[in-house]
Amino acid sequence: MLKIPRHYSKREGSFSRCPDNEPVALKIIKNVEKYREAARLEINVLEKINEKDPDNKFLCVQMFDWFDYHGHICIAFELLGLSTFDFLKENNYYPYPLHHVRHMAYQMCHALKFLHDNKLTHTDLKPENILFVNSDFNITYNPEKKTDERYVKNTQIRVVDFGSATFNHEHHSTIVSTRHYRPPEVILELGWSHPCDVWSIGCILFEYYLGYTLFQTHDNREHLAMMERILGPIPSHMIRKTRKQKYFYRGALDWNENSSDGRYVRENCKSLRSYVLCDRMEHRLLFDLIQKMLIYEPSKRIMLGEALKHPFFDELTSEERAVCKRDSGLR
After folding, report:
1. What contacts 303, CB < 8 A, 6 or more positions away?
2. By the 8 A CB rule, do 87 and 134 touch?
3. Which CATH homologous superfamily contains domain 2-78?
4. In the predicted model, what is the mean pLDDT of residues 297-325?
5. Non-local CB neighbours of 308 within 8 Å, separated by 6+ positions
6. Which of 54, 123, 217, 255 is the most exposed place for a label (fewest CB within 10 A)?
């Protein structure tokens, strides 16, 4: 926790948005030009978010201000808790309870709808970039596993890391998203837009629910094979359109089921609905939502305004909905 030295401000009166005597999180950028340029781009996005959401209603991390200290760009943010990944890791990857998954999912959809409404794609959604506002927890002993389990007290979250966020009018890099959360249109180099984030959210929700990643791979061909094993065949029109024909043969994925990699995928991947832990309706509704987020064709993937109305969210309490009641109203 750091307090900002006023005499290092980029201008007189800097940090007018920063509450007096309150600790902040300070992101310090290496004094290397490529990192400085990346920081400037992130600051541009954060300033636009502040402009569109001055009251911080839409759950994106709040930048208070920034300054240059001997060539190091420093960005001051609201101080938050652990990331949802770090909490999961410190809890021995014990998955989040379903009602926690529900509230976090609703907030993510709310925040990303706001970004999409404002012509912005995050492009790097993952559990590491979803932070709890406060990650304090209770501990409960699990007699079956003979271990203590942590339950976060407050599931309010913030979306962070806008270093790769891209406006609709800006150049779109060919490859975006961290591997495990990367959609098929990016792997196949078919171009991408807002649905890229929706796919990532679907992967994140699976991970919250089960405690491990849906697509555990670092190879494009294996990644596509896992997708087909879990979600069914890749649509033929996407195969015809892609430049990455090296992954296909005669209109189908070129994949040897009997190789060691093929056996690994066959033994470790199954159809999406097979991962449901129990047959209760709320569990099935979560997987219905995830399936709609993991549709291959981006234009057919559920949009976040529609996702927010999904029956999986019917069980949210009024308190859980309260933070997300307002529509962004920004186009």
Report:
1. 194, 195, 198
2. no
3. Phosphorylase Kinase; domain 1 (3.30.200.20)
4. 94
5. 106, 109, 110, 113, 324
6. 54
